[in-house]
Amino acid sequence: MKTNILTAAAVSFLTMTAVAQKDQVKNAEDALEDGNYAEAKAQLKVAEPNLSELNDRWQENFYLYKGKAYMGDGKTASAEDLKTAAEAFQKASEMGSDEATEALTALKNNLIQSAIADQNKEEYASAADKLYTSYQLSKTDTVYLYYAANNMVQAKDYDKAVEYLELLNELDYDGSGKAYTAVNVETGERENLGSKQQMDLMVKTEQYKEPEVENIPSKKGDIAQLIARIYISQEQYDKAIAAMDKAKATNPDDMGLLQAEANMYYQMGEKDKAREILEEVAAKDPSDPLTFNNIGLMYAEIEDTEKAIDFYKKALEIDPEFNEARVNMIAAKLQAEKEIIDEMNGLGMSKADNQRYDELDAERKELYKSVLPDLEKAMEVDPDNKDIIQTAMNLYSNLGNQEKVEELKAKM
């Protein structure tokens, strides 16, 4: 008989507890309607320890309201609160709440927009947290993990950045694809519309124009380079090389990875190794002028001017408008000026010295004349570059062409 009394008492107590839980969940709903998110959180925290005593419908409501309470107005919530809200909406959605499913989609959009706002304010750690939360909510959206890693690099949280980047490698994240873009007629901005079908549809509405399909290159090289950069900054060279070798093992023909590897060895001071890799890249893909330009720069560093000029010329053969290679070629050609001037300054006042001075002066002027066509082309490609104009003015002045000097001075 005593046992029956105790059991009845326990049942009564549980019933009273369940009623109290329902009251707290209902109070949270009322607080949300009033926009009082703090009160809603407080009510839900009281209800949560005994949540299992509520039936499925009330548990579904609990998670829906919890999501709303922690999301707040969607603008001022912290990354941690947004993560809590997302997890709550996820549970309510799994229990069948259509409202929670819609709220979860809105929350994901808010997370991304909030992360973008944080990036613009240079609050990179906060942006990374929100992007990582977006990835956790939808593991198929690995691009958010990639952007989270980049923000962690900007925030100088290198340990966390490497963790995310290594995870991307494990997931074999590539990131390549196509972007379907068009210009928003109202704003004039080009926007990514997600798919060809959506792009075509929006162009038909005449709200968008000038559709384009843009190729998005693989990000494997960027990822490997970021990992290597971090390890190099920490002087963990073995880890940097291991990370690059691991990435190359699965993608041996990825030109971006080879470029990244060359950059890694260059940062480590192994410039001969870096140049060898770049020459391998140039042999495999002779269509990229930047590769030839960079090889030229490396030869210029070891004062092999002739080879440097050859590679700058190859870059310009591929892209005659690639002014960076042209300016580098001009600089390489003008290296001969230093030796001439040094000898001129070291001469005495004898007849033989004066004769030699005149020979060197003529040689110097011939050098200037040989470079001027390149400078004129450089100014044609980039007419607002003051450094190029100033260099041309100096050469024309040394050649005694004051008319040309005045013409260029007017451009300045």
TrEMBL record:
Name of this protein: Tetratricopeptide repeat protein
Repeat among keywords: yes
First and last residues of every TPR repeat: 221-254, 289-322
PANTHER family in UniProt: LIPOPOLYSACCHARIDE ASSEMBLY PROTEIN B, TPR REPEAT-CONTAINING PROTEIN PA4667
InterPro entries on file: CellSynth/LPSAsmb/PSIAsmb, TPR-like_helical_dom_sf, TPR_rpt
Domain of life: Bacteria
Signal peptide (from-to): 1-20
Annotated SMART domains: TPR (SM00028)
Stored SUPFAM superfamilies: TPR-like (SSF48452)
Nucleotide-binding in keyword set: no
Pfam families in the record: TPR_1 (PF00515), TPR_19 (PF14559)
PROSITE patterns: TPR, TPR_REGION
Alphabetic keyword roster: Repeat, Signal, TPR repeat
